[in-house]
């Protein structure tokens, strides 16, 4: 499965989150061969749970694994420090990012620490975030701990 | 409430986790004035959930908040990159750490980024981890993504 096809699944998750009234960020964890291990989206609003960012939701959905070095985290948005820390701690080998225009998280730091990073610059992902930030700025700032 | 009293609550959580057969790491989130906001422990084994480290469990239990700058994360063990990323992203102002002998996570990095760090060197926290790592090394390595 190529990067765009993997991103399409993360974007489906983001759209599910938007349609539920939540933060429209989605993610999915794959093997390097493109097998889907887990997918999910931000659930701050839906579950009243500030710990469920999209990447943590996908990681959780993938279940327990002995290691992650052959896995790829695909996310619609540049991962925040929380989710970048997840990638570094668990040794996820590669991160595919829909866009890093509306938010620039920790992906440069991950690259410095040997994680392969691909930023796709996907216009649909940018549009999802631009619409969300314009409509719900207070929810967005809450989600990234800015006030 | 002083640091030792706050740590005692995190240590109670770690012991609960040990007695459930899980990874014996506990945490609690307080206000700067010592009001308990949330407490929890690692739930990898109990919930089959690799995303529930002690700090994320305490953060989740505290619920949604507009900001965290006046909060203190208290944890029995130096926070891994995942949990250090949580602290940095959400702007938690201070971290109190039971011990950093059996595992050295991201607390130096947090200090470089302005987070107040206190390492208490608590012998009971050290003993909990030493016993656990000796008894269940494979579970410990899984929990920190090492193999």
Automatic annotation (TrEMBL), chains A, B:
<dbReference type="Pfam" id="PF00383">
    <property type="entry name" value="dCMP_cyt_deam_1"/>
</dbReference>
<keyword id="KW-0862">Zinc</keyword>
<dbReference type="GO" id="GO:0005737">
    <property type="term" value="C:cytoplasm"/>
</dbReference>
<dbReference type="GO" id="GO:0072527">
    <property type="term" value="P:pyrimidine-containing compound metabolic process"/>
</dbReference>
<comment type="pathway">
    <text>Pyrimidine metabolism.</text>
</comment>
<dbReference type="InterPro" id="IPR016193">
    <property type="entry name" value="Cytidine_deaminase-like"/>
</dbReference>
<protein>
    <submittedName>
        <fullName>tRNA-specific adenosine deaminase</fullName>
    </submittedName>
</protein>
<keyword id="KW-0378">Hydrolase</keyword>
<dbReference type="GO" id="GO:0046872">
    <property type="term" value="F:metal ion binding"/>
</dbReference>
<comment type="subunit">
    <text>Homodimer.</text>
</comment>
<dbReference type="GO" id="GO:0008835">
    <property type="term" value="F:diaminohydroxyphosphoribosylaminopyrimidine deaminase activity"/>
</dbReference>
<keyword id="KW-0479">Metal-binding</keyword>
<feature type="domain" description="CMP/dCMP-type deaminase">
    <location>
        <begin position="1"/>
        <end position="117"/>
    </location>
</feature>
<dbReference type="InterPro" id="IPR002125">
    <property type="entry name" value="CMP_dCMP_dom"/>
</dbReference>
<dbReference type="GO" id="GO:0055086">
    <property type="term" value="P:nucleobase-containing small molecule metabolic process"/>
</dbReference>
<keyword id="KW-0963">Cytoplasm</keyword>
């Amino acid at each position: 499965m190529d990067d765009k096809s993997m991103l399409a699944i993360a974007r489906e998750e983001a759209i599910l989150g938007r349609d539920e009234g939540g933060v429209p960020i989605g993610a999915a964890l794959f093997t390097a061969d493109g097998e889907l291990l887990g997918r999910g989206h931000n659930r701050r609003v839906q579950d009243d749970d500030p710990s469920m960012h999209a990447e943590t939701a996908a990681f959780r959905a993938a279940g327990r694994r002995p290691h992650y070095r052959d896995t790829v985290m695909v996310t619609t948005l540049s991962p925040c420090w929380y989710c970048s820390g997840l990638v570094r701690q668990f040794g996820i080998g590669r991160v595919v990012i829909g866009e890093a225009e509306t938010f620039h998280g920790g992906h440069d730091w991950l690259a410095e620490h040997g994680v392969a990073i691909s930023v796709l610059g996907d216009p649909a992902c940018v549009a999802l975030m631009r619409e969300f930030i314009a409509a719900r700025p207070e929810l967005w700032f809450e989600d990234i701990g800015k006030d």
